[in-house]
Every structure is written in structure tokens, then in C-alpha cells.
Design a protein that fits this description.
Length: 233
């Protein structure tokens, strides 16, 4: 099986006064469907930059990004947008839900705007809310949901497009310990169930054993990759 996501010698530079800052420095990474990788490292080490280039939101200065066999640099802007829509799910720390929409509407709005048949999408949204444990609150609005529930809506929404690659940036930063653990367990579950290639940036080293491998970043470089001692149960 070819990797779902490959970063090949990827560098990303930002202008920094009279010199340049290397947010990413010749990063190599490869992940297959069904794999759950965690990405740790100090603040400013390039973790979010790595997710941004992998999500095709930011163009690297050098190197190749290959998603499901597609070399992203060879694509036009429109093709890149289509690839992102069809292959990539993105989950940030803040759920960024629209205040006026119910949980199920958060999942449907994008497909609705794309003119997709809403009936099939409704079934899919209901199923995904069930998967993330929110079938009882499908018609509640964000202010009626807890922080953990909002993050679950966020996860379900990212899964609506049936992504191959799931990119998750500090999903538990705003949550207490118990809710954090249940969110990481949920990400493990959806990785297994939907066979996504999942990359999660996290500070919670405690939950690393729920993932398949841990990659550490420092100064824009991947400094080591290790396999956690315990297997998920
Ligand atoms: P992390 O997510 O590990 O905290 P980031 O990827 O956000 O790290 O940042 C890596 C480095 O790149 C930092 O030094 C940061 O200041 C810099 N950086 C990130 N985004 C930008 C940007 N848009 N413009 C300039 N510098 C940036
Ligand atoms: Mg970050």
C-alpha cells in the first residue's frame, strides 16, 4: 500500500528581518491509512507549519508533498483545492463552529454550499454524529454544547468528506484531562474505523501510547521518531 501522505525533504522559510527563518528544514515523513502518528516538540518547532503544508494550505519553499499518490506541487490552485476537499480533514484546537447552526447543520453546511444532494449527506451526518457520541444533541447549537462536545462536532465535520488524511492540531488544548483522553481515544477510533492517516500535534504526552508512533520536532527538523511502549487497548 502506498503511503497516504508523504513529505519528502520539505522546507518552509519565512522572511525574518534581513535573513530567513526555517519553519521546516528538510522534513521527511510518511504515513499510511489506518496509522495514527503523534507529533510533539517545543513551541515554535514547526509542528503547525508541518500540518499547514501537509494540508496544502501553505506551499513549501522546497520539497515534495504527495497525498494519495498526487504530487501537490504539480497541481493548479483549483486542483489543490479539490484535492484538499476530497482527501484532507483538518481539526484545529478551536472548533470554529458557526454560532447559529445546530450540530448536524455544522456538518451539512459545506456539502449544502457545494450543491450536493442533502438527503445522502443527512444520513452521513447522522451516522457520524452517532460515531462521535453526539446523536442525542444533533439539534443543539454550539452554546448549548460542552467544550468536549464542540470538539466532537469538529471531528465529525472533518470526517464528512471521507478524508484519507486527517490533520489534527492540539485538539485537547482547551479541554480538561478526562475530556482530553476521550477526544484522543475518539481519534484512535475514527482512525481505525475510517482508515485515515492521522497526524496529531499534542502536548499531552500521557496519551501518546494511544497512537502508533511519536515524532519529535525541534527547530523545524524531525529529531526522532519512536514507538510508544504500550499498545492501544
Ligand atoms: P509550533 O506549531 O511547533 O509551535 P509553528 O509551526 O507555528 O510552530 O512555527 C514555527 C516557526 O515558524 C516559529 O518560529 C514561528 O514563529 C514561525 N512562523 C510560523 N508561521 C509564520 C508566518 N506566517 N510568518 C512568519 N513566521 C512564521
Ligand atoms: Mg502550533
Amino acid at each position: 500500500m502506498t503511503p497516504a501522505l508523504t513529505l519528502n525533504n520539505v522546507s518552509l522559510e519565512y522572511p525574518d528581518g534581513s535573513s530567513t527563518l526555517k519553519a521546516l528544514d528538510a522534513v521527511n515523513l510518511s504515513i499510511r491509512r489506518g496509522e495514527f502518528l503523534s507529533l510533539v516538540g517545543p513551541s515554535g518547532s514547526g509542528k503547525s507549519s508541518l500540518l499547514a503544508v501537509a494540508a496544502t494550505l501553505v506551499k513549501p519553499t522546497a520539497g515534495l508533498i504527495i497525498i494519495d499518490g498526487h504530487d501537490v506541487s504539480a497541481l493548479s490552485e483549483a486542483e489543490r483545492t479539490a484535492l484538499r476537499r476530497d482527501k484532507v480533514g483538518i481539526i484545529f484546537q478551536q472548533a470554529n463552529l458557526l454560532p447559529s447552526l445546530t450540530a448536524v447543520e455544522q456538518l451539512l453546511i459545506r456539502e449544502h454550499l457545494r450543491g450536493k444532494p442533502v438527503r445522502d449527506e443527512r444520513e452521513k451526518a447522522a451516522e457520524l454524529l452517532n460515531v462521535v457520541g453526539l446523536s442525542g444533541v444533533a439539534h443543539k447549537r454550539p452554546h448549548q454544547l460542552s467544550g468536549g462536545q464542540r470538539q466532537r462536532v469538529n471531528i465529525a465535520r472533518a470526517l464528512m468528506g471521507s478524508p484519507t488524511v486527517l490533520l489534527v492540531d492540539e485538539p485537547t488544548a482547551a479541554l480538561d484531562h478526562e475530556r482530553s483522553e476521550s477526544i484522543v481515544r475518539l481519534l484512535r477510533q475514527v482512525t481505525d474505523e475510517f482508515q485515515t492517516a492521522t497526524v496529531m500535534v499534542t502536548h499531552d504526552t500521557e496519551f501518546l501510547p494511544l497512537t502508533d508512533a511519536v515524532t519529535t520536532m525541534r527547530d523545524g527538523r524531525i529529531s526522532r521518531a519512536l514507538v510508544p511502549s504500550a499498545q492501544p487497548n
